[in-house]
Amino acid sequence: MAQQDMHDDPQQRELLRVARIGKAQGLKGEVTVRLYTDDPEWRFEPGSVLYEQDGETEYIVEHSRTFKDRWIIKFEGTDDRTAAEALNGIELYGEADDPDEMLEADEWYPKDLIGLEARLAADNGLGLPAGQVVGKVVDVVDSPAQSLLKIRLTEPVVTGQNSKGEDVVEKTALVPFVEQLVPEIDLNKQYLTLDPPGGLIPGL
């Protein structure tokens, strides 16, 4: 039965990258980690299970703490500095959250947003028709301040000319992924709405 579970679960489990293990911290098996998650308190609570990318190799959190904005983790079975140093560089994955719970909390994974049609919101600040199609989300770009939605414009826009007298054509726009600019997301109907300020999106 155990073998059957080990074989089946990784196929069904959807894993998301949570952290990368860094240097050993102290002599008792603790390690520092680089975060790829917005929920470290939940991901690193005692008893939480994290995995390598194969979905089979498990790391169980014994305890965790923060020090100077860094997370420090102790995994079960890693009890000295030598064992901790051996983990350096391993990327850890956790199981995906429940989609319905994420919808209620207004949380999104990049893969959910890519492919959504981008439309103008009702009562948008530009005074343009509600529902006007701007383009399609083709990527989610991380930046220090917030994520950016890369939108491929439905109609490429000529924004000027270069030194050779050739037209400069903008085919994409970057929109900060914040509620003021992206007020609505409907995964069922595969669209999101935008309320951009003037000048943010070429042609609008």
From TrEMBL:
Where is the protein localized? Answer: Cytoplasm
Specify where it is mainly localized.
Answer: cytoplasm
Q: Which InterPro entries match?
A: PRC_barrel-like_sf, PRC_RimM, RimM, RimM_N, RimM_N_sf, Transl_B-barrel_sf
Where does the record place the RimM N-terminal domain? 18-97
Q: Which UniProt keywords apply?
A: Chaperone, Cytoplasm, Ribosome biogenesis, rRNA processing
- Tell me yes or no: is rRNA processing among this UniProt entry's keywords: yes
Parts of the chain that traverse the membrane: none
| Functional summary from the UniProt entry | An accessory protein needed during the final step in the assembly of 30S ribosomal subunit, possibly for assembly of the head region. Essential for efficient processing of 16S rRNA. May be needed both before and after RbfA during the maturation of 16S rRNA. It has affinity for free ribosomal 30S subunits but not for 70S ribosomes.
What family does the database annotate?
Answer: Belongs to the RimM family.
**Domain remark in the UniProt entry:** The PRC barrel domain binds ribosomal protein uS19.
Q: What is this protein called?
A: Ribosome maturation factor RimM
This chain is encoded by the gene named: rimM
